[in-house]
Design goal:
This protein is α/β, with parallel strands linked by helices. It has one domain: Rossmann fold. β2, α6 and β3 form a beta-alpha-beta unit. α1 packs across α2, α2 crosses α3 and α4 packs across α6. It is globular and about 45 Å long. 32% of the residues are buried.
Length: 204
């Protein structure tokens, strides 16, 4: 039996700080609730986090999400997330990053955004371009948000775990990856061509 060689290429993009100028997790919540409520909820989330888990961003994120969304209708949250995707994200993208993002799509490469932010506002934006999204997901029961994370925070080693669970990298002849923080290093290590903080142009 002949084995078809891998000929397609894939580009993995971090989102916050790589494709965008700011952290969309905080920006989304500030746009939705205002600066003071978000600051208060984040301070309480950090203060209530056990010392043993203080560096665990998943723990702090879940405590913040619980304060902001526990008991809320998921459809209401979805409406806010889609509204943010449509009205805000284009205005905070990095022009050079978007040139590279579009170039991969024009070349016919598979493109996937891998982000710690929530899929509900990244996916509506990304789908307009033809990119898929792997992101942090929130738990919903009976149409209402529990305030818990359905998946671990999609950062660091978790990015690799999610990529390997959802994508067969053996199908691709070349892997590109783009990131801007320590939370992207494991993903960047997967790549044949890794670009960190846009310090150089990729070799297409």
């Amino acid at each position: 039996m002949l084995i078809e060689p891998a000929i397609k290429r894939i580009a993995l993009f971090d989102f916050d700080g790589t494709l965008t100028k700011k952290d969309t997790f905080l920006d989304f919540h500030v746009k939705r609730f205002g600066v003071a409520p978000v600051a208060a909820a984040m301070c309480k989330a950090v203060a209530s986090c056990p010392v043993s888990k203080f560096t665990d961003r998943s723990e702090i994120k879940e405590r913040f999400v619980s304060r902001m969304w526990r008991g809320a209708l998921f459809e209401s949250y979805l409406f806010d997330a889609r509204n943010y995707a449509e009205r805000e994200i284009d205005g905070i993208t990095i022009p050079m990053a978007m040139e590279v993002f579009r170039k991969h799509l024009e070349l016919g490469d598979t493109v996937c955004i891998v982000t710690a932010s929530m899929k509900e506002w990244v996916e509506p934006w990304a789908s307009r371009y033809g990119s898929s999204v792997i992101g942090t997901e929130l738990e919903v029961e009976g149409g209402r948000m529990t305030g818990r994370l359905k998946t671990p925070n999609c950062r660091g080693a978790e990015k690799v775990s999610r990529i390997e669970a959802e994508l067969d990298l053996n199908r691709f002849s070349r892997i590109f990856a783009y990131g801007n923080s320590g939370g992207d290093r494991e993903m960047l290590a997967l790549a044949d061509e890794a670009v960190y903080k846009w310090r150089r142009a990729p070799r297409f």
